[in-house]
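Hi all, long-time lurker, first post. I run a small reading group and we've been trying to get comfortable going from sequence to structure in the token notation. Rather than ask abstract questions, I figured I'd post a concrete chain and ask someone more experienced to write out its structure so we can walk through it together at our next meeting. Sequence below, copied exactly:
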Amino acid sequence: MVTLKQIAEELGISITTVSKALKDYPDVSKKTRKLVRETASLLNYKPNAFAVNLRTKESKTIGLIIPEIVHHFFSSVIKGIISQAEKKGYLVITLQSNESYELEKKQIDLLLNKRVDGILISLANGTGDFKHLTEVAENDVPLVMFDKIAKVVKCSKVIIDDRKAAYKATEYLIKIGCKRIAHFRGPLLPQNSIDRFLGYKEALANYNIAYDSSLVYLLDKMSFEEGKFFAKKLIEDHKDVDGVFINTDLVAIGAIAEFNNQGIQIPEALNIVGFSNWFMSSVISPSLTTVDQPGFEMGKKAFKLLYKEIKDRKKNKTITFKKVVLDTDLILRDSTK
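-- Answer (accepted) --
Happy to help. Here is the structure in token form:
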């Protein structure tokens, strides 16, 4: 690595003069500043980022922990975060927890040891203890949660109204004539899984449809394979079901694949609504009616909240935690009448 000392020796001037010239100090002549910049360019000089970070007490990096990178929703979130981070000169260290609480804890420790300026996180399904997140605050590192959050953790959050979105999805099935509506729900721990289940139940209650716990299937991995498995089980258990609200599109796509294999006519015999609006949702046959979850916008908002908190802390301003709730839309396609 070329150093300031090497540039100084090349030009026969002091290191201080080289440093000031590169920072465009007015007490260095224009001629000298031009000469220093040209020499630095010729020698391919790059500022020592580590030294700069020590001086400014900023690493210019943030940590991002998500459950799955391959998930269409989370890939959209990453794009949203990076689109804003690059504008502010931040590097994003992206880690995948694989829905593991233990791995998530290790990743938080890793990011704190790397002295990141802030952390963005969507919780793993297995996360039920939040001590590792309170430690982030104890280390005076800004934390913003998005999508899968913990209500008890004091920090800023970016979410959608999962309960309201699930209510509207279930309500739509009711309004098109469905009387027996099943629900493929996510694991018990994530708040968004809980809220989507509650939205489903609330819609049934408001339209005087009796809740039947046997129509609710608890999924663990939220995978394509689980979608196929529980679609087959639903057919075996309840031949009279005419609607299904499914927690996420990947599961819904697996379910549609199995229903197609079984010769179930969609939407004539069975109406299906998913959640997230993956790209695959629009190309599967029949195409999937689904809740559009604004991942890119969520990523942008999450970074902006984090960035503001990073800057406010540096200025010793009082930090006010915010909760941003983004709107969702129901995208109507061929899987419903």
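A couple of things your group might point at:
Residues 4-47 form a domain with the 434 Repressor (Amino-terminal Domain) fold (CATH 1.10.260.40).
The longest helix spans residues 295-314.
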